[in-house]
Amino acid sequence: MTSALGSAPAGSGTASRPGRGDTRSPARPHRKRWGRTVRWSGWLWVLPALIMYGVFVLRPLVLTMQYSLYHWNGIGAARWAGLDNYLTVFTDRDLLKIISNAFILIIFFSFIPVLLGLLVASLVRRITTGPAGTMVRTVLFLPQVIPLVAAGIAWSWVLSTNGLVNQALRAVGLGGVTRAWLGEFDTALPAVGVIGTWVMLGLCTILLITGMSKIDPSLYEAARIDGAGPVREFFAVTLPSLRQEIGICLTVTIIAALASFDIVYISTSGGPGIQTTVPGLEIYRLAFSQRQVGLASALAVVLMALVLVCVLPIQRLTRGEK
């Protein structure tokens, strides 16, 4: 009797039922196939963007690296150069001067706008609310809306010999200080830097104001209860909370300084001499005016490497939770 009860027919339903310890699910293979299908469909959605990125970003980058290894005028046959073009970039005094000009512009394009942006953003957050705050933000962001070519033309007029700056100096009795700010060796590069500061200040200020609006108000209340004034409150609460926003500002502005072209080309064309020439402008001249495509490509690759060297540490230091 016991053996008869313990053995079930081969075709009975009890034999096919999983035991209590059996965790197998007949629907799991279907779910795996469905998950794979969803993932592949996601790649199909982004495939057009990847193709465009590969054609218009990755392919030119690879070609630039290839051209940098040749002597080529852009028309005739190319001659193998190896690393000669890179050796020229790192040994030619004029090219080294041009690269150093870009690093000097970082001070005006990046550090000064970020410092002033912190100050302006703190003041705007405290004294402007409602429609007034919106209007102030719009005015501050206006330089980002104006095309850089138009900004370069306008500032060329302002800084010219009879421009607004010199007229203001003469009006207050400082006529001896007036000069062609964009035309003299000592003042041309700082004058271009001032234009960059004006352009980047609005962007940095808006980004920092946005970051300040996300700070928990209870942190400020706790600081006030502990007796912190506005300055201590800024360094103890505001500044540490804006680490990521400051990192974004530095990243964007440093790239703008190293890759600058529009403002310099319109305002000074790189003069006087090469005093305001930057790598972006020199790459254009080497490739299209002097027909030295290989040397221009090598300078472009070096510029890309310098951007990465400057930006990646900033991203690493400012990344993470607030």
UniProtKB/TrEMBL annotation:
Residues 99-314 form the ABC transmembrane type-1 domain. It holds the Pfam family BPD_transp_1. Keywords: Cell membrane, Membrane, Transmembrane, Transmembrane helix, Transport. PROSITE patterns: ABC_TM1. It is found in: Cell membrane. It is a multi-pass membrane protein. The keyword Oxidoreductase does not apply. The chain crosses the membrane at residues 40-62, 98-124, 136-158, 188-209, 246-266, 293-314. CDD domains: TM_PBP2 (cd06261). Residues 1-30 are annotated as: Disordered. It comes from the Bacteria. One of its GO terms (cellular component) is plasma membrane. SUPFAM superfamilies: MetI-like. Belongs to the binding-protein-dependent transport system permease family. This is Sugar ABC transporter permease.
